């Protein structure tokens, strides 16, 4: 019973360390006045919040999984660490200082990590808990455009398709922000917004790259017999 009570205490106490980050997705240019973004961190708890901020390269491996690598060179971040009083908001400036001439867009995660709070001080357990947000930041050169091509689609099971996509353009694609339209013998099925986000497992496609994604489609639509259009 003692362990159950402690478990309830820890997770019911967790929200007091919560904070919010806005915006979670942003787009900037490699040079000029549009080459920086301000991120706002709101401490909505009743305790002071210490956070650290750093940049990560966003890559997608051959299996479609996101890989993150530390990048200390491409951004000037002010401040790198900060203490935010209860109920207050801290603005963080993220300025791109990397390669000024880009042939294609580059994608990053900006990590905002809470410095660990050691709840073990309360009972000697040594358990530490912290929150972390990773925003999406894209650096996009002028006139960059995406060019999505559907290479192949297959029926995986009764209500799942695998779709091989290729982005032949030089700008990233957020697949979950598109509209997916399936047609077969006069029937039309559309997916967008939250419904699409829940049905689609792969949500990001880098420029000049390919990946296979899986999407849930009603069983009355067969992958081989249906037409698929993805409207960006």
Automatic annotation (TrEMBL):
It comes from the Bacteria. InterPro entries: Ig-like_fold, PapD-like_sf. SUPFAM superfamilies: PapD-like. Gene3D superfamilies: Immunoglobulins (2.60.40.10). This is P pilus assembly protein, chaperone PapD.
